[in-house]
Amino acid sequence: MTYSFSNLSKNIKRSEIREILKWTRKPGLISFGGGLPDSDLFPLKEIADITAEVLETKGYLALQYGQTQGEPEMIEALCYHMSEFGDKADYDNVCVVSSSQQGLDLLSMLMLDEGTPIIVEMPTYLGALQAFSRHNVNMTGIPMDNDGMRMDLLDETLSKMEEKPKFIYTIPDFQNPTGITMSVERRKELIAIANKYDVPIVEDSPYRELRYVGETLPSIWELSGGKNVIMLKTFSKILFPGMRMGWIVAEEEIIEKFVVLKQSVDLCTPSFNQLILANYIKKGMMKKTIEAAKKCYEPKKDAMLESLKKFMPEGVKWSEPEGGMFLWVELPEHIDTKEIFMTAIEHDVAYVIGAPFHHDGRGKNTMRLSYSFPSVEQIHDGVERLAKMVKSIL
Amino acid sequence: MTYSFSNLSKNIKRSEIREILKWTRKPGLISFGGGLPDSDLFPLKEIADITAEVLETKGYLALQYGQTQGEPEMIEALCYHMSEFGDKADYDNVCVVSSSQQGLDLLSMLMLDEGTPIIVEMPTYLGALQAFSRHNVNMTGIPMDNDGMRMDLLDETLSKMEEKPKFIYTIPDFQNPTGITMSVERRKELIAIANKYDVPIVEDSPYRELRYVGETLPSIWELSGGKNVIMLKTFSKILFPGMRMGWIVAEEEIIEKFVVLKQSVDLCTPSFNQLILANYIKKGMMKKTIEAAKKCYEPKKDAMLESLKKFMPEGVKWSEPEGGMFLWVELPEHIDTKEIFMTAIEHDVAYVIGAPFHHDGRGKNTMRLSYSFPSVEQIHDGVERLAKMVKSIL
Fold first, then answer.
1. Rounded to two decimals, what is the model's pTM?
2. CATH code of B16's domain
3. B15, B46, B50, B51, best to mutate vs chain A, most A CBs in 10 Å
4. Which of A257, B109, B253, B319 is most buried per CB count within 10 Å?
């Protein structure tokens, strides 16, 4: 029997990173791999209690089919949660989704055809590249510096493009993979450039709540007055990923389109999970969770920066994030982090190779380090091992 | 600002049924509308207890990212659950999905391009039509009789098709919307015809466990020895929909493809929900739930059949399901169930119009009645109201 497949399915490749992360299960190995939250932070007892309460008081809702846009109680809780971080959104600006990856999936379905031009940061989130490239789109990458996407290069690129891109995709806060934050000036410039060329902005914002240093910057959504921006949010990084709970924020007409698409994709996000999280937020527990996460991750970030400074040889550069989970390392150009990956495994340390975060495969000398999951001590030891390995190669 | 959208998104229409179901919120109205399980059946206390246990013993897994194919514990539980109903599947034959609607979504992505020919039953499940027609495919409908899809017509259709269809989509047990079950002979014929023309079968099987009369028939998956069949399963109908939990059963090579696709769609189905349900199954509670559901729904089905017989005027025909949640009514041909829908609402009763279940919009004189949610008394009263309304029109 010969099954035959769609054109779209031929564009999808198994994630290279998922493949090599298999090696990180080696006993004794310290992994700076996946962007996993520290499971010591999971509020197990609280979630069990809230689940019992939700089932007792509204179990008939929690286990029944829900509305595609999301449970009303959840949408209201999300609006409240955002307002705590300076983001104003009305009920009709929100659609609950089953993880922000589903947000990327729906966005791709809504906007992308084969050959559609879009603009992304270089490097950028792998899962977004995966969702976009499924449609065999035409991606243009804009380089970044320590203040985020380079606006001079964005303007120049847009001025030269023959076909207007469908959107500009950015992760302004503690970007995955670099950890870099876009400055307020750049955010304003981005909005001005997007308006000038009439191109919507997609603001992917999973880490925004996790700032350890300095003041929270206004989101692009907020700076633009909620116009011309689609914001993707999730609780996977600030609370726990096992609930798969995200949401999209956009103008009402765009949310309506997402809702219709979502009907054909999964009808609705689990009411069960939505009501549990809605109550978690309403009881003020989300704020406490975020405070606890910040307290947990800040020393880990500091430990990684200190260890890099202490152990890494000259010629190695890294970013200095103010929040989030990641840090970006550049080795001297002649070193290919994929080629030396197994050597790192022999040294009992793992990272994520940088090239797959580039739409065009460049960045072979780069790597992403995540500091959220290992302990401070492991971070210290792991960076020492990594530095030893790098020195042995240089 | 002018957003611009994909070609695919233009093929998606808001569900006509969801629109008219809004009217069913009228106080005092009896609805035979959505296929909702009876919420009195929801095992609230048991789920709260299992959730507490799961969080206590493996909360670090339940709230963390999981494997895309599914949590190993859940996959094993699903294989066990299926074996209880005569379906043999190995670990690598299963991929957990976030509702069987996601199964349809992934199937569409994997197999369909614009213009792809596929074969469906006539009528068939609306959510499948919605997922398939997103890709602007070329659907051919095969009429049914009381034994399911007409195999003579299927053979004839396939012999004349210039391009081989990508699959034959069927719901063999207590079909949505008709309630009809495909006989064993037909299932065998279907497999023979599918093999003759080298076309895979998609067996959508949400109601299989809910048989009230007679013996469970072997699934197409089982009869074919697991070859050339993709089976879609869900707990939304036999347990509760609020968890959004389904699974795909297929040959290992096909499952691998679904897993890669699912990565870009939502990374993984909530580990939280999977571990709760895995434990529910392992404790033998699923079997009890199904027994309770059968005990609840059988008298409702009988009440509906009795009331139809008692109240409906001559010229009205209906199916006699042996399980599931639905029953199919045909009015005299000159009556359009969409046109008289608001008259039904005036009579304080609602149904689902039949035309949207046909890929080509035929079936204007048909309606679907669901007996799972209303009480026996409401079913009696509702059918009486419906019959009165039909009589007033005839």
1. 0.95
2. 3.90.1150.10
3. B51
4. B109
